[in-house]
Amino acid sequence: MPLEAKITNQSWRDVLAEELKKPYLKELKQTLQEEKLQHTIYPTDENIFNAYNTTDFDNVKVVILGQDPYHGENQAHGLAFSVLNGVKHPPSLVNIFKELQDDIGCPYPTTSELTSWASQGVFLINAVLTVRAANAASHKDIGWEKFTDATIKAISEKKEHVVFILWGRPAQMKEKLIDQSKHLILKSPHPSPLSSYRGFFGSKPFSKTNEYLIANGKSPINWCLK
């Protein structure tokens, strides 16, 4: 099965039709097959494109851009910053939830899955969609960035009034792909413990996003989780 066949959401297949024909995706699939012979790879095959398959292109209101998947067992499931329930909340997610409390008063969630955000139009995409177990950034520069850059460009070009939330320098390097004349970009330090106190806390991304959506005639996101 071609790698791109795992994108089952037709809205994305239509929008990325030309990108899905490009030879680098075949090369990327071959690289992943070789990697799997020697390493455990996260997330599982069926979850690699979970962000695309959960959030229709037509429904995208917000983009939260991560770097690469969590590399611990049972963590990554294809949505940036989200981990499967039953797993200890990673430090970055803990800080996101703390800011969620402070920003809009949501109770601290028991869930660690952000699927309810994704189903409301929050596209939770990592720049790199796979990783070796226990080896952060191990799949950097194998081809994923070409695909996710094309994705960001497509959202920027084909939609209006989308909020792009860019946490940390790697995410902010994607700013050049976004047309700021018709979208909102919210930037702050990354929510990791190394940088969260340098401006992530107090950045109010959730309330600012909803204010922008409402001002542009869109329904706000219900950020509170159970």
What is the C-alpha radius of gyration, as a whole number of Å? Answer: 17 Å
- Distance between the first and last residues' Cα: 37 Å
Mean pLDDT: 96
Give the strand order, joined by hyphens, for the main sheet.
3-2-5-6
The topology string of helices and strands comes to HHEHEHHEEHEHEH
What percent of residues are in strands?
5-15%
Count up the helices. Answer: 8
* Biggest β-sheet strands, sense, barrel: 4 strands, parallel
By secondary-structure content and strand pairing, the structural class works out as alpha/beta
CATH class: Alpha Beta
Stretches with pLDDT under 50, minimum 5 residues: none
CATH superfamily: Uracil-DNA glycosylase-like domain
Overall CATH architecture = 3-Layer(aba) Sandwich
Please tell me the total number of domains. Answer: 1
Tell me the CATH topology.
Uracil-DNA Glycosylase, subunit E
Task: Specify the helix fraction band.
Answer: 25-40%
General form: globular
Number of strands: 6
List the keywords.
two-stranded antiparallel ribbon; alpha/beta; globular; DNA damage; glycosidase; Uracil-DNA Glycosylase, subunit E; Ura-DNA_Glyclase_AS; 33% helix
What's this model, at a glance?
With 226 residues, the protein is α/β, with parallel strands linked by helices. 33% of the residues lie in helices and 11% in strands.
How would you characterize the overall build of this protein?
- It is found in: Cytoplasm.
- Excises uracil residues from the DNA which can arise as a result of misincorporation of dUMP residues by DNA polymerase or due to deamination of cytosine.
- It catalyses: Hydrolyzes single-stranded DNA or mismatched double-stranded DNA and polynucleotides, releasing free uracil.
- The chain has 226 residues and is α/β, with parallel strands linked by helices.
- The chain has one domain: 3-Layer(aba) Sandwich (Uracil-DNA Glycosylase, subunit E).
- The chain has helices spanning 10-15, 24-38, 50-54, 91-104, 115-119, 144-158, 169-172, 205-215, and strands at 41-42, 62-66, 122-126, 131-132, 163-167, 184-188.
- Strand 5, helix 7 (169-172) and strand 6 form a beta-alpha-beta unit.
